[in-house]
Each structure stands twice: as structure tokens, then as C-alpha cells.
Amino acid sequence: MRIKQVSARAILDSRKEKTILVSIKTDIGSFSASSPTGKSTGKYEAKSYKQNLEGDIKKIREFSEYFSGDEFTCFDCLEKIEEIVEKNVGANTLFALESAILKAIAKEQEKEVWQLINPNAQKMPRLVGNCIGGGKHSLIEKKPDFQEFLLIPNLKSVKQSFELNKKAKAEAEEILKKFDNDFKAKKNDENAWMTSLNEKIVLDILYRLKQKFKIAIGVDVAASSFYKRKKYHYLNPKLDRDSEEQFGYISNLIKNFGLLYIEDAFGEEDFESFAKLLKRFPDRLIVGDDLTVTNPKRLKKAIEKKAINGIIVKPNQIGSLLEVKKVCELARKNKIKIVFSHRSGETEENILADLAFGFEADFFKCGIDGKEREIKLKRLIEIEKRLM
Fold first, then answer.
1. For residue 384, what are the contacts with CB-CB under 8 A and spacing of at least 6?
2. What are the φ and ψ backbone dihedral angles of 97, each rounded to 5 degrees?
3. Which of 6, 28, 107, 272 has CA 20 to 30 A from 132's CA?
4. Number of CB atoms found within 10 A of residue 141's CB
């Protein structure tokens, strides 16, 4: 496959904010891919754009002639792209460009995108769905300080898990109507229910769902978003906790509600508290996101500190799919569970499902409903169906 032309334009994500769509013309047809945008971002993430979206759009158009002499036949051919564009554009742009190229290579070879990564992939990831939300993703004044309250089915198929999450989320709506006088059945950035309740009451609701539907539950604390000057500043109710108090509080929640999955329970610099939590709860998933930002160097540090046993992989956090490959290989080598994840500002791009399956992710964190999230979940179901 040879690239004849590259172009880019702005489109709107699920938050109605601008993101990038990259298109390529090749000798076998035209292909495009878009990048999501995150709102809750770690400070070690790669920049979305070199300077701004408009600058990246202009820059990407300048590269058309640079690719005309190269032939692209496999996943590792992305190295040719990165040699040319990596330092000239941001992570969102690089991710969208590389995704479009993988689609073109797959089409030419009559393969699925995931087969370019690992033609022998067979393991379907377990779904992680955001049921009730808070933190930066919920645009209401009173809300839980934790960002996500998660449902994690463990059924035989992705399709069954998808359906179970939808049932459990519908049940959550009914319970919220009874417990939250301010509940208006509205959804946040990630299509999770918005509530004025605090995290303890929300976890009590999730615990009911756990018992009724035989489903595992978890949280994304996103602690960096409310950590400042060595304190965790809770607003609902208003109180401050130091690192030791935060550790005690999180430990009690894990025990009291039987949490399986705990993401970003501490600030993005606090490897020691992550390690302490993992040591205390080795049978739970202690997951890094802002801590590790899909970056091999950050992951190496987390491994050295024995800080996590699960890592969030968001391809546009790093941009380079070759770096995503390094992260997944390093995680697997060190028995760290891989959780491929959407962003809060999503598009109708579905390549995340192919990447998750190809890289043999253990979990797929992609919401529960909403068209931008369902398109990815349905793609994963389609992959599952073809393998049966």
C-alpha cells in the first residue's frame, strides 16, 4: 500500500468539542480515522497537538509528498511514519494518522486491523462499564468526588456482558430515583448517570447491583483531580485527607464494598501509596492511569516500585501505536493486566476494539451506552462473532 495524499480536518467529539480526523488517499482507496479527547488528563500525557489543532491540520497536509516513495505492508511499518512526523504533530494527530494507515494495510491484505497486530489473538477482554459518574466528567455542582463507578461482568461472551451492563445501569437509574431527590436521569460526558450523592452512597447502590446481577464493581477515583498541596480535597462532604488518611479511606471502601477494581486511588506522583495498596490487596486490581499515561518509562517506574497490577492503555495519551505495543509487551511480561480505555470526548471511531483485541487486553473500558461508545463495543462483539 502506498500513500498518495494526506489531509486532516476538525470534527466534533461527543462533548461537542473539536478533535482531529485524518484522511489518506492510497493506491487502493481512501481511509480515515479520528482521535478522541480526554478531559481528565495526567500531567505526563503527551500533548494532544504540537501547538494547537489548527497547526497540526496545516502541518499534516505538508507531509503528503514525504510518504509517496514508501510502501506500507505491516504494523511495524508505522516506524516510517514516526521518523517523519512524530516531533512535528501531537499525540491525537499521530494516533489518527497511524490508525488510518492500519485500516488501509488491512484492506489491501483482506485482513482485520487486529490481525496486523496479532493474527493468533483469541482472548476477548472483559468489559468495564461506567455506570454512575462524578468528578470532572459530571457538570453539576454537587456530585461524587470519585470520577467513575464501574460495572465489570464476567460472562462467557462480550455480547452477554454488554447486555448485562445495560440491565444493571437501567436498574441503577431506578435506585437513584429513590435515593437522590435531585436526580434528573441525566448523563455526563461518558454517558454515566449524574447524581448529587457522595461516593459512599453511590457505592452502596453499586453493591446492590453486585448482589442482584452477580457482577464485580470498581471505581476510578481520579485522585489527582482533587489533590493539591499534599491533601485530597473532598467536596461532598467537604473535608481534607492526607496520604495516610486517603490510604485508610480507600482500604475501607475496598473491604466494605468488595471492590475488584481501583484506578488512580492516589495522586499521579505517589507510587509509594499505590505500592502500599497493592501489597495490602494483592488479589484486587490496582490500576494506574494518570500514574502511567500509556508511557513505557512511567510503566517501568511503576514496575520497579511494585505500584500496580493493572494499567490503563489510552492510545492517544502517547500517540504512537509502536509505543502502545511496547507498553503492552512490558505489561504482559510483568504480569500486569492491560485495560484498553476510551476517553470522555469520544468519536464514532471503532479501531479501539481492534487494538484491544490485537494486543490481547484483559479488560475493555468503554462505557455502557451512547453511540460513540456502543460503536466500539459492537465492533468487539463483531470480532467475537467471527471467531466463533
1. 124, 157, 158, 159
2. -65, -50
3. 272
4. 9
Distance CA 173, CA 76 (A): 46
Q: What percent of the chain has pLDDT over 90?
A: 91
Question: What pairs with residue 132 in β-bridges?
Answer: 149, 193
Task: Count the neighbouring beta carbons within 10 Å of the beta carbon of residue 152.
Answer: 21
Confidence of residue 341 (pLDDT cuts 50, 70, 90): very high
Q: What are the chain's domains?
A: 3-111 (3.30.390.10), 126-387 (3.20.20.120)
73, three cell numbers = 505492508
pLDDT value of position 40: 66
**Catalytic site residue from 136, 169, 314, 365:** 314
Cβ atoms of residues 68 and 24 within 8 Å: no
190 has catalytic annotation: yes
Write out pLDDT tens, residues 78-92.
Answer: 999 999 887 899 999
Q: If we measure between CA atoms, which residue out of 288, 284, 289, 260 comes closest to residue 274? A: 288
- Among the residues of the chain, which ranges form H helices? 53-61, 64-67, 78-85, 91-108, 113-117, 158-179, 199-213, 243-257, 271-280, 296-304, 315-318, 321-333, 351-358, 371-387
Grid cell digits, residue 379: 465492533
Q: What is the pLDDT of residue 282?
A: 98
Burial environment of residue 260 by CB neighbours within 10 A (0 to 12, 13 to 18, 19 or more): buried
pLDDT tens figures, 105-164: 999 999 999 999 999 999 999 999 999 999 988 888 899 999 999 999 999 899 999 999
User: Which residue among the candidates 148, 190, 199, 263 is catalytic per the annotation?
Assistant: 190
Residue 220 CA from chain centroid, whole number: 11
Is pLDDT of 41 > 80? Answer: no
Q: Give the orientation angle of helix 371-387 with respect to helix 351-358, to 10 degrees.
A: 40
* Confidence at residue 265, expressed as pLDDT on a 0 to 100 scale: 98
What are the C-alpha distances in Å from 24 to residues 8, 67, 99, 263? 9, 11, 10, 37
CB 218 within 8 A of CB 259: yes
174: annotated active-site residue: no
Q: What is the mean pLDDT of residues 22-49?
A: 90
